[in-house]
Amino acid sequence: MVKRILMQTYLWVLLLLLYAPIAIIIIYSFTESKVLGNWTGFSLKLYGSLLNTNAHHSLMNACINTVAIAVIAATVSTLLGSIAAIGIFNLKARSRKAMGFVNTIPILNGDIITGISLFLLFVSLGITQGFTTVVLAHITFCTPYVVLSVLPRLKQMNPNLYEAALDLGATPMQALWKVIIPEIRPGMISGFILALTISIDDFAVTVFTIGNQGLETLSTYIYADARKGGLTPELRPLSAIIFIVILVTLIVLNLRTDKKKQLQSQKTK
């Protein structure tokens, strides 16, 4: 009994530490005070100000750049990571283990090391840093996460399905598209969402590859804003919106997964 109470207390304290800061930001996004922690009454003024592109042109540009970079990087890394996962899965056991180890290194490697390495690479190749280099950098560190998301789905797949499709007259591309892709689609979706989140959240790699052409992402904007002595109040409603969008997306995906599992269990019965 005492052990259960201690475990539940530990769990609730952990959840409180994780979500209390987010809850505070969401609560104070509904007041127009410029200082976080100073409640001046309920107001949607900060949300209206956030949507005013003329008043916060640089912030909205940073958000647009962040979303554009994240979508492009997540899409390309999902394609590359899925193809790489299929290739790794079809290797011999020893080669598969070696490639899995190589794929894990960029994940375990510090972001600042990745950022410096890519910075030196772009400088040595004479590539002007800007939007393109940031996208390439994000694709580089997002792809290994997609590989890790897709590989478990390949291991769960019946290995005879692909061979059966070929025996029935399908070309390798048709078998890939109609047999393997549907089997690994949940892993691809998970990898895409993970890559999207990591790209939006990244700062260390972005700051080394963004150059000095005036390009800003949300992370670099917040960093520059904090160095000025404070944060723009409109960042509170923006953070709340991002959190709610991610939360709703996860809930929808989990509900769809549960429905599919229920349908599969009903079919097996």
From TrEMBL:
It is a multi-pass membrane protein. CDD domains: TM_PBP2 (cd06261). Its main location: membrane. Gene3D superfamilies: MetI-like (1.10.3720.10). Keywords: Cell membrane, Membrane, Transmembrane, Transmembrane helix, Transport. This is ABC transporter permease. It comes from Bacteroides caecicola. It comes from the Bacteria.
